[in-house]
Design a protein that fits this description.
The chain has eight helices and no strands. The protein is mainly alpha-helical.
Length: 180
Amino acid sequence: MLGWVLGAIYSVPPLRTKRNPLAAGLTIATVRGFLLNFGVYYAVRDAVGAPFAWSPKVSFVARFMTVFATVIAVTKDLPDIEGDRKYGISTFASKVGVKRIAEGATVCLLLNYVHAVATGILGGAGSFNLVPMVGGHAALAAMLLTRFRALEPESLASIKRYYKHIWDLFYLEYVLYALI
């Protein structure tokens, strides 16, 4: 229900949080990161009558994906930056620029991947399957760096490839989640 309410206030007047970069980012991160992972998992457990049991894997993926969703919220306007500038639409991307947004997003995601690798290494015995948790996140971090290095901030096609790759990494995380 909370996800529905947040989705409505994101798009529906008078609040329309999508008009404010901070409010939009918080809304997107809350729904796509926390609620979609932690909230849905425990709501389903409750619906089937399973008792509450803390899951390090669910906790990890909820935290990881909340950070990831925050990055997506910040980078979502990159592919539209030319049109936004042309029509005077003020977005975080049009104010700060493609290069700085992409650098910040890449650093944030790299730190997220470093944290994932550290969580895998330092987690208690049996908490995570080490090969996908450590190796998988290291591989995705390497893919992110490769795509960032290929980014040409003045090329719309390159910007779109970079942004699409962020979404590819987001969904690849769910593949890893099934394995960790």
